[in-house]
From TrEMBL:
It comes from the Bacteria. GO terms for molecular function: oxidoreductase activity. SUPFAM superfamilies: NAD(P)-binding Rossmann-fold domains. Belongs to the short-chain dehydrogenases/reductases (SDR) family. This is Short chain dehydrogenase. It comes from Trinickia violacea. The lineage of its organism: Bacteria, Pseudomonadati, Pseudomonadota, Betaproteobacteria, Burkholderiales. Keywords: Oxidoreductase.
Length: 197
């Protein structure tokens, strides 16, 4: 398969590339490449990317930022940034894929545990993650028979916890999280929030 991976240079993206690149043609995308430049927060950049790529069999997105900060410190700009980036960035990635994804292809997005299990500082991240999941359920209905759409909801990733000075063992290693994206790719599922096991 020809697979576009947005966020290919990130913690999760690198493991997804590692997992899939021996069996598939992987196109790594992010703001700085490596194979394709795209800024999720800029719809024109997504349109331009698909024009350059033509048709792909699958799209995986392990990118998208949202502001993590206590509610009282969040600014209007923080809300606008987060909604435009991780939420609308992924929504637009799906919208713009129409006509560029092969019949029966798959799109796999990323949300996160904070939609269901909030902590102090997760107000915007929670909105964004829940919004991505709700969008996926609706988009899957409307794209039924054309493309499958799912979302992986990671909990805390071990490497991220370790970088924050917390216990690696309290999270899930990125290489294990990557397996959930493979489920979105190969299993005949759509409209699903794929848990990380
Ligand atoms: N790590 C965790 O514990 C965890 C837990 C739950 C959910 N998640 C979610 O999983 C996703 C990936 O997390 P991660 O830890 O792997 O992140 P990461 O290491 O910071 O990597 C982010 C990747 O996305 C790219 N990127 C950033 N902004 C972009 C934009 N506007 N347009 C296109 N590409 C962009 C980055 O490359 P460039 O800088 O070149 O653009 C990079 O490849 C995020 O949505 C995050 O919220 C992570």
């Amino acid at each position: 398969m020809r697979i576009l991976i947005v966020g290919a240079t990130g913690l999760l993206g690198k493991e997804i590339v590692r997992l899939l690149s021996s069996e598939h043609e992987v196109i790594g995308a992010s703001r700085n490449g490596p194979d394709q430049s795209v800024d999720l927060a800029d719809k024109a950049s997504i349109v331009s990317m698909y024009q350059q790529l033509g048709t792909v069999d699958a799209v995986i997105c392990a990118a998208g930022a949202a502001k993590f900060a206590p509610l009282e410190s969040l600014t209007d700009e923080d809300f606008a940034f987060s909604l435009a980036n991780k939420l609308m960035g992924q929504v637009n990635l799906v919208r713009c894929s129409v006509g560029h994804i092969a019949q029966g292809g798959s799109l796999t997005l990323t949300s996160g545990i904070l939609s269901l299990h909030p902590v102090t500082g997760s107000a915007v991240v929670g909105i964004v993650n829940a919004g991505v999941e709700a969008f996926v359920r609706s988009a899957a209905l409307e794209l039924h028979g054309k493309a499958r759409v799912n979302v992986v909801s990671p909990g805390w990733v071990s490497e991220t916890l370790a970088a924050m000075g917390q216990a690696y063992s309290a999270g899930t290693p990125a290489a294990v999280v990557a397996q959930a994206y493979k489920r979105g790719l190969v299993e005949d599922i759509t409209g699903q929030v794929i848990p990380v096991k």
